[in-house]
Design a protein that fits this description.
Bound molecules: fe (ii) ion
CATH topology: Ribonucleotide Reductase, subunit A
Shape: globular
Order of helices and strands: HHEEHHHHHHHHEEHHHE
CATH superfamily: Ribonucleotide Reductase, subunit A
Number of domains: 1
Helix content: 40-55%
Structural class: mainly alpha
CATH architecture: Orthogonal Bundle
Length: about 475
């Protein structure tokens, strides 16, 4: 078993799925490869393709010591296909086939549902690379630049992971879908990416950190749900992706945390105690806490939309079929079929926010979204500790799930961040207190000056406590080669 899990680096596409003896799939992937490299060149990180970046590459799927670090030019990164080890005797975790052996091949009756789930997941991966492609130019340090590129190459690898499943298990329509992944483009009017949040801009580094904290965390929840799939290759693929995803959320949490830290330090040095004295705080060249709250509001609510409608028959069907489970399905103590079970789902009726018990089977999205919100709270608490340690009176909060929504029961409902229903007039009048305004964006943009000298940090962000791979503070994470 361990023998089989070793990663083969001899083929052009590193893998632990035995590609060298699977000629059909190897050929298909080799045919897809040039298009991918072309996409990376056109829509990947702008301006740093020739620079050598200190990146981790997965060399094993062993949970201890699975990565190695080295300098690599991004276009030469070894994107590979890696599945977590097969669990002997694994059974289907939920739905009407609960307890039957997990599928090693695609079950015919669920083929199109399964393909669609894989395509939607796959589509988000290149989308975020596209959204983040201009950020290298304004990196606040080499450390941050390296983290950005690490996230980017791994999202690229996640695309490979989904494309492998499409090419191996879905024949010619899988191949067609794999090609479409490189044709859609984030923010494009004609061929946009499939989900809303992945067509938004990531205009500055605070957005990037909020995105990796909140939107990559949606990714985590989706991968967790797909890791419970009865289709074993998908489960194994997602389980390994989750180990990489953890770093993306670390980049987000610590990035926001360091931004807050620096703001608090600068306020204390200048003797400013009122966080709402925005002009004075901004004059210090740091991002005021109310603006950080607005950015949080924006990225959190865009991410909530990714969970879909609270009540959904598609989600019920996927669960019932056993191809997408709940968060930590196997740890839940129930029948895993949701016979007779109910779940409280949000409602917005006659201008009032309520909730109603609905069949739990139909509220799978709502439940995953609730689990997400709980998960997202941890970092917010830690951010607030930074603020209170600095003796500043301010508390960041997750806004109400009805605020600023475009999907589900709260779609375009005039609800405030603290969950009050107001008139549209009132809502519009206060919009700029709740969400980043153009002026906020311009201000943040004015701080986005690159700092590329090893060990130095832009004024608006504090250095990290430890380096990547335990490297010292002045480590050269990127050997810059400017074209
Ligand atoms: Fe990803
Ligand atoms: Fe990610």
């Amino acid at each position: 078993m361990t023998q089989k899990m070793a990663v083969d680096y001899d083929t052009m596409i590193p893998n632990n799925v035995g590609l060298s003896s699977d000629r059909r799939v190897l050929k298909a992937l080799e045919r897809w490869h040039p298009g991918y490299i072309k996409w990376w060149g056109n829509l990947g990180p702008v301006g740093f393709q020739e620079s050598k970046v200190y990146l981790r590459t997965a060399v094993s799927v062993d949970s201890k010591g699975w990565a190695k670090f080295d300098y690599v030019k991004m276009p030469e990164y070894r994107w590979g296909i890696l599945l977590a080890p097969q669990v002997e005797g694994r059974t289907i975790a939920c739905g009407e086939h609960y307890g039957e052996p997990a599928w090693q091949e695609v079950p015919g009756e669920y083929r199109s549902m399964l393909r669609r789930l894989i395509v939607i997941q796959g589509d988000t991966e290149p989308a975020s690379v596209e959204q983040q492609r201009f950020l290298g130019k304004t990196a606040p340090s080499q450390y941050d630049m390296r983290n950005l590129f690490q996230v980017n190459v791994e999202e690229g690898r996640h695309l490979w992971a989904m494309v492998y499943l499409l090419q191996k298990y879905f024949g010619s329509d899988g191949r067609e879908e794999a090609n479409e992944m490189l044709r859609r483009q984030s923010g494009s009017a004609e061929t946009p990416r499939m989900l809303g949040a992945f067509n938004e801009e990531t205009p500055d580094w605070l957005s990037f950190f909020m995105f990796t904290y909140f939107t990559d965390r949606d990714g985590k929840m989706q991968l967790e749900a797909l890791a419970q799939s009865g289709f074993d290759p998908l489960s194994r693929s997602c389980r390994f992706m989750l180990t990489e995803e953890a770093h993306h959320m670390f980049v987000g949490e610590t990035g926001v945390g360091r931004t807050i830290q620096r703001t608090c330090e600068a306020m204390n040095e200048a003797g400013i105690s009122d966080p709402y004295d925005v002009e004075k705080v901004r004059a210090l060249g740091v991002i005021d806490l109310p603006t950080i709250q607005k950015k949080l509001n924006l990225h959190y609510t865009l991410s909530l939309d990714l969970f879909g409608s609270e009540v959904s028959t598609n989600a019920a069907n996927a669960f019932n079929a056993g191809i997408k489970g709940r968060y930590q399905e196997i740890k839940i103590d129930d029948d895993h079929q949701l016979n007779n079970a109910t779940y409280a789902a949000s409602q917005f009726i006659d201008g009032k926010i309520t909730s109603m018990d609905v069949p739990a089977l139909t509220a799978i999205n709502m439940r995953l979204r609730d689990d997400y919100s709980k998960d997202a709270l941890g970092g917010v608490k830690r951010w607030n500790q930074i603020i209170s340690k600095a003796n500043i009176e301010f508390e960041l909060k997750l806004p109400h799930s009805g605020f600023h929504r475009k999907i589900g029961v709260f779609d375009h409902a005039p609800i405030t961040p603290d969950g009050r229903v107001v008139t549209w007039d009132e809502w519009e009048k206060s919009r700029d207190e709740w969400l980043p305004s153009k002026a906020d964006g311009d201000f943040i943009q004015s701080l986005m000056k690159p700092e590329w000298e090893p060990g130095k940090y832009a004024n608006w962000i504090a250095p990290p406590r430890v380096g990547i791979d335990n490297k010292p503070g002045d480590f050269e994470y990127v050997q810059l080669h400017m074209a």
